[in-house]
Design brief:
4-stranded antiparallel sheet, SGL, SMP-30/Gluconolactonase/LRE-like region domain-containing protein, Neuraminidase, mainly beta, binds 2-acetamido-2-deoxy-beta-D-glucopyranose, 26 strands, 6-blade_b-propeller_TolB-like, signal
Length: 415
Amino acid sequence: MASIASLALLCSAIIAPTQAVNQTVRIPYENTYLLPSDFSGNVNQSFVNGTTTSNFRINSLLQKANGAPFIAYDESFLDVIGDEPQPRLIDNRTTLFAYEAGVWIPELNQVWFTSSTYQASTIPGYITVLDLLTNTLHELNGTSKPIINPNGAYYFDGKVWIATYPSSANETYNGGIISVDPRTLEVETVLNSYFGLPFNFPDDLVWTTQVNNRYLFFTDPFYGFLPYPDNFKTPQLPVGVWRWDPQEDLLLPVISRNEIQPNGVRVSPDMKSLYVTDSTATFVTQTPYNPPVGPAAENWLGPYIYKYDLNEEMLPVNRRVFGLVREGIADGIHVDDDGNVWTAESEGIVVRSPKGRVIGLFNAAYFQGEVAAASRIPIANFALAGDTLVIFGVSSLWTVKLNKTAVSANSVIVN
Ligand SMILES: *[C@@H]1O[C@H](CO)[C@@H](O)[C@H](O)[C@H]1NC(C)=O
Ligand SMILES: *[C@@H]1O[C@H](CO)[C@@H](O)[C@H](O)[C@H]1NC(C)=O
Ligand SMILES: *[C@@H]1O[C@H](CO)[C@@H](O)[C@H](O)[C@H]1NC(C)=O
Ligand SMILES: *[C@@H]1O[C@H](CO)[C@@H](O)[C@H](O)[C@H]1NC(C)=O
Ligand SMILES: *[C@@H]1O[C@H](CO)[C@@H](O)[C@H](O)[C@H]1NC(C)=O
Ligand SMILES: *[C@@H]1O[C@H](CO)[C@@H](O)[C@H](O)[C@H]1NC(C)=O
Ligand SMILES: *[C@@H]1O[C@H](CO)[C@@H](O)[C@H](O)[C@H]1NC(C)=O
């Protein structure tokens, strides 16, 4: 029988304010490559949800991580997120409004992002603006001409540069690269054809500089076409990465379809390396041959993050694998001022050290919007806005205050 004193203790324990649960789960990095030998795992599920072992302690750690917003595989991730990171829900909708780009405009304290290509045949793409001061959203309007089907984007030299794609929502629009002055809202078309052939699906872009010269790289994949042939035009150009050199007035393909089904593209802070993600999911490469579709056919690629050197002519050379995506593909990519590489993958936003070690995860099981999860549409992109991470949950939008400035306002890679 309990004494009065211990009952009082029990009561005070019950009525005491509950300690906020620590939302970060730390998984030893060793568990990513060494597990009890009878483990089982599944490529179609995340590491923490799809892996079971005979070790109770490891299983319960993975289970605990499955519902957590933050998973740290390395101490350095704790330095990025701090002791008490707090997810903040900005909006939660039934439409796929928060999907691509993720452009921070420091001068206006805004983040611009674009709606999902998944709904592009029924709802023409549009841009939404997040005001970081007030945490309010509004649709971008009042531009000098309409911005049709915006996709990936990059902030450079006072302008937002946007990759736009053609779709059945507007048969006359061919897509291409445009620029928008965020103050005057003046829109200009930068490029939209290769000798009269439209690009397939301009997806993402980045500006790089070398001394006084500047170069624009953009990716032109075609993954919209295979699953949705009615929504997109038949490809006429091979997929690949292109480079525009305004000094020489020169547009060139610089990475061929034999190397990549490209998606996101970013540059390292020292401008010496180019990162490009490949959109071929693992299970697609497991079939020996995909039906060839025009010149853009793909075959034995994989969900890699590739790293290239940018040589003295500012051309990408020496391709090597920088990272392999655990589940799905890496879509959007951003590099922070320390050279860490952040990618949006099916598991969530994965952060890799400059050497390629996965140091942590912003867990999709927590951040992906419910409507997006129900339609199996993964998180595609996010923004690094100073010390704020803006997560596009596709049908939801979150911010997380970081413990450090990931990308500073005067960084050469504001992105
Ligand atoms: C993963 O999903 C793909 C596509 O649905 C399927 O073909 C493959 O068999 C699955 N792999 C496993 C290990 O379940
Ligand atoms: C947060 O940043 C400060 C300053 O850089 C650092 O001293 C501290 O260790 C960081 N916090 C964590 C949890 O790493
Ligand atoms: C939460 O857990 C992480 C990982 O173990 C730790 O670094 C952090 O200090 C903890 N935060 C608090 C407030 O205890
Ligand atoms: C988002 O809204 C849905 C209903 O549409 C709701 O079930 C869900 O809990 C909401 N998500 C968050 C994170 O509040
Ligand atoms: C433009 O957006 C603002 C803010 O959301 C709104 O008040 C205004 O009515 C919009 N204008 C048009 C022409 O849609
Ligand atoms: C369709 O695209 C053309 C440019 O090719 C543009 O002028 C027109 O405004 C677009 N229509 C809609 C509804 O967006
Ligand atoms: C974890 O996997 C189970 C199937 O084993 C699935 O039903 C559930 O939705 C998954 N949870 C998350 C958060 O992904």
